[in-house]
Amino acid sequence: MLLVFALHISSIDLAAAQPAAPKAYRINTGDKIAVNVFGQPDLSGEATVDQSGKIRLPLIGDLQAANLTLTEIEASITKALAPDYIRNPTVNARIAEYAPIYVLGLVRTPGLYPYREGLSVLGAIARAGGIGASEAQQGAALGALLQAEEKLRLLEVSRIVLLARRARLTALQNDQEQIDFREMSAITFDPARIAQIQDSEQLAFAAERQALRQETSALEQQLPRLEAEIASLKRQTELEQKQRGLNREMMADYEQLAKSGLARKSTYIEVRREEARIEGNVGRLETDTLKAELQIGEVQFKIVELRNVYHRRVQTELRDTEKSLLELTVSLPAAHRLRAAYARQAGMLTADQTPQAAITVIRASGTTNVKHEAALDFLLQPGDIVQIGSLFPTTSELSPEGTAEQAPDAALRSRKGSTAAGVASQPAAETN
């Protein structure tokens, strides 16, 4: 439940005349200054201090005004007019309208409000309708909470998927017969969803093992055929070698007969031709045997390479899964803190757990912005930004170290943009 308390102050007439600023007041960016040059209506009028700290006046042009007192700006205008334009000019300057203040955060109507002398944080909160969340803010907080819960749920599902995948890949890497999901037994999540994820991994596990077995079997089935072919070639080689031995004995006998003149030359030539044929057959059979043995080596290499590629792929997927799990280990605690912070902002916790709304005032100081932790009686200055708590989690709520919340830069940019728009629409000088 969002912290809401009502602030009651007496009604303020916002249309009342602006009280005169003290002469010691330092002019701020966004202030509207009324300049009156006695007897010179064309040189009199109002000008707004722009982001560079200057005002634009007739004849004079741009004149530095920020951080000067009214007395100092009167002296600057007098010096710029005399003696070239007016002899002994009489100049009076006053604040026609202070730079507005901005009330942001846990207020019912956040926005821009006119500044009045002596305005405190309490008065600014009252003008913004008191502390509490508007319907739009409550809707935004609830929407942010739902998004945080959905992101947390997706991260938790991703973690379960990665744990199941790691179990499958580990089983494949170790050539196990089944997946060991015991690491996931302590997970508190939808049991049906966990079972669905595990079943999916079981199917993938069985399919991958079956694919490896089929590819390996297809290669291994080639080995018996090649081995039988080699055995047959070797038997043929042995027969040819025996035939070669017999043929050589016959050729030796014919050579003896030829020396005695008893053998015919044609028969001797035929025996020599048979010797050459047998030698050719033996050479061919030995070559075919070597080819078959080489094919066996290639098949065995393919089987080894198939298993190596399979295990390398499993190892790569396992390494990527471990990396993703490590990233989730970092993301999940932050997602839990984010969800808890949005739950607090959306009023999902009990009243005694709801943090008090902190009040921060951001004030321009030269070219920088200074942040003040403020109480209700803290007096404001023109151009201040009053931040009441925060509709969304701060850095300290999301970080376990509790780092300080950064200033709302978007509000500062909005303030500068609004002031610049006011300057652009403001005439250089107006006639009284």
From TrEMBL:
Gene3D superfamilies: wza like domain (3.30.1950.10). The keyword Iron does not apply. GO terms for molecular function: polysaccharide transmembrane transporter activity. The keyword ATP-binding does not apply. Residues 20-95 form the Polysaccharide export protein N-terminal domain. Residues 101-138 form the Soluble ligand binding domain. It comes from the Bacteria. It holds the Pfam family HH_AprE. Residues 209-243 form a coiled coil. Residues 150-335 form the AprE-like long alpha-helical hairpin domain. Residues 396-432 are annotated as: Disordered. Keywords: Coiled coil, Signal. This is Polysialic acid transport protein KpsD. It comes from Bradyrhizobium ivorense.
